[in-house]
Design a protein that fits this description.
Strand content: 15-25%
CATH architecture: 4-Layer Sandwich
Number of strands: 12
Number of domains: 1
Number of helices: 9
Order of helices and strands: HEHHEEHEHHEEEEHHHEEEE
CATH class: Alpha Beta
Length: 334
């Protein structure tokens, strides 16, 4: 009888411990890219459609968090929703490269484990963020590129493949023609890219276990050449998560790489004790412009604080705070 009593006491103790374990508040922040977004150039119908797409991404990510799911699952769900929308430069809405095709990049990072996965220059993967997660979970590597990444995708269940022209949209094609005409007209156009990109998408989530994850996906820069890769798939540049902070960036990627922007924000929180807002503002509003770049970022810390600084005219963004309040915004004055 005594062993049974001891077992019962142990089970009761385990149950009490599980019940007493604090449940962290959840939070989610997303972006659909920063850049030259002027109210006068964005029609009412387009604005409504963009806000609806942001809300759909928030719904997808928040549904995961609401049922006790992981931050990793939440950011994947949110970014897949953004990749499926033609309104953003990722997945279906990816911009064209100089050859008239599409090359897509993505990365994901889990903060409390520092696991990360990334892909660059993929051309037939419908949802690159899913492949980035597969690299993290089913390979010994962090980043795979081009044909190698596509070959890895062949062996992964659930990674949908599409022809490259599946990513075609008329809006992006018009942007390519304008960019190439400008390049012919202006000798310095290839070097002066400020505000000439069309965004990226990303998400950062805090789950009920207090864990943070970050995901970022992009089609890169319009008219990009020579297999150019920006910051989005580079851990520490466009994406970062640790046990207290997560960041996803959007903007002129070359400068986010040079400044290790995503990591720099979280490092200021970890090592200097900066608030999340102070750290994000310092890097996005001072460091990046001083280097010569521009863009924005979304950031989230383990207490559920959210920061969304940008130094461009607009940034597509949305959030769900720990108290359940949520919203979307596009322009600086929103």
């Amino acid at each position: 009888m005594r062993p049974f009593i001891l077992l019962l006491m142990a089970m009761c103790s385990m149950t009490a411990t599980a019940q007493d374990r604090p449940v962290s508040p959840t939070a989610l922040v997303i972006h659909g890219g920063a850049g030259v977004i002027e109210r006068a150039d964005l029609g009412a119908d387009d604005e409504r459609a963009i806000r609806a797409a942001l809300d759909a991404a928030l719904d997808a990510g928040q549904a995961v968090l609401a049922r006790g799911g992981s931050a990793l699952d939440a950011v994947e769900a949110a970014v897949v929703a953004l990749e499926e929308s033609p309104r953003f430069n990722a997945g279906k809405g990816a911009v064209y490269n100089a050859q008239g095709g599409h090359e897509l990049d993505a990365s994901v990072m889990e903060g409390h484990t520092r696991r990360a996965g990334a892909v660059a220059g993929v051309t037939t993967v419908r949802n690159p963020i899913r492949l980035a997660r597969a690299v993290m979970e089913h390979s010994p590597h962090v980043m795979l590129i081009g044909e190698g990444a596509e070959a890895f995708a062949d062996a992964q269940p659930g990674i949908e493949r599409v022809p490259n022209d599946w990513f075609d949209t008329e809006t992006r094609h018009e942007q390519l023609k304008k960019a190439q005409q400008r390049e012919r007209d202006e000798a310095q156009a290839a070097l002066d890219l400020k505000g000439r990109y069309f965004g990226t998408v990303g998400a950062v989530a805090l789950d009920s276990q207090g864990h943070i994850a970050t995901a970022t996906s992009t089609g890169g820069m319009t008219n990009k050449k020579w297999g150019r890769v920006g910051d989005s798939p580079i851990v520490g540049a466009g994406t970062w998560a640790d046990d207290r902070c997560g960041v996803s960036g959007t903007g002129w990627g070359e400068f986010f790489i040079r400044g290790a922007v995503a990591h720099d924000i979280c490092a200021r929180v970890a090592y200097r004790g900066d608030t999340l807002q102070a750290a994000a503002d310092e890097v996005i509003l001072r460091v990046v412009p001083e280097l010569g770049g521009d863009g924005g970022a979304i950031a989230l810390d383990r207490d559920g604080n959210i920061a969304m600084p940008f130094n461009t005219s607009g940034m597509y963004r949305g959030w769900v705070k720990p108290d359940g309040s949520r919203g979307t915004a596009i322009f600086r004055e929103d």
